[in-house]
Amino acid sequence: MKDWLLENITLSNFLLLGVFFVILVAYKKGVKTIPKVGWGLILLILLITTRYLPAQLIAFEEAKVPQWNIKNCDTTQMQYIHVLGAGFSADTLLAPTSQLNTTTLARLVEAIRIARQLPHYKIVTSGNTKYGGITQAEVVKKAAIALGIPKQNILTLTTPSNTAEEVDAFIKKLGKNKKGIVVSDALHLPRALMLYQKAGIHMQGAPTNYNIKKGPHDYNGFTLPSYNSLSAMNTYLREKLKYYKDSW
Length: 248
Known about the structure:
11% strand; 10 helices
């Protein structure tokens, strides 16, 4: 129930509540009070629907976990690279790489990039299925094999449905004494690493799928209000709420 609520909390809902609040105030206090409340609501809408504020908040969060660097990794030990799931299709007419959504595929590509630098590694895929049949973990495994990873170097966790369950499944299968690397979206990775730390295991992070990039051609300043900016703010809000929920 909590996960459903967090998935469905959006700023659009809050803005709709704000409109109802303005109407309620106007009804109770009179229309003369609308300008004061209305200007506050307009200012809030401008802040969260233009690019600058969402970009700054997301960039700050995404910078918390630095890019993975082999110099910080013990290459003499077996490294377990946990690729967190993010969605797939069970359409068997497609190649495994096409069955993965773009988020999961990017995570797998990052895991393979890391694996090719390590002498000893296992890629761990995770994720169940809501509809029966092949699981997300198995599709990611097939995609990894298609991209050149030997099948004996891949482990699957086929029961988890969310990040907390993925962490639990990893620890139940491999214990707390393994050396590991977690691959996920840069915005999501702080929560995943927090869950591992909470469970008593230290993992390195390997962020990918950055929402905010700061190259010479990337603009993250003020823009006209847009749905994309509102969507980015929604994504940030949901991830922070999930972080606080999982940290309890």
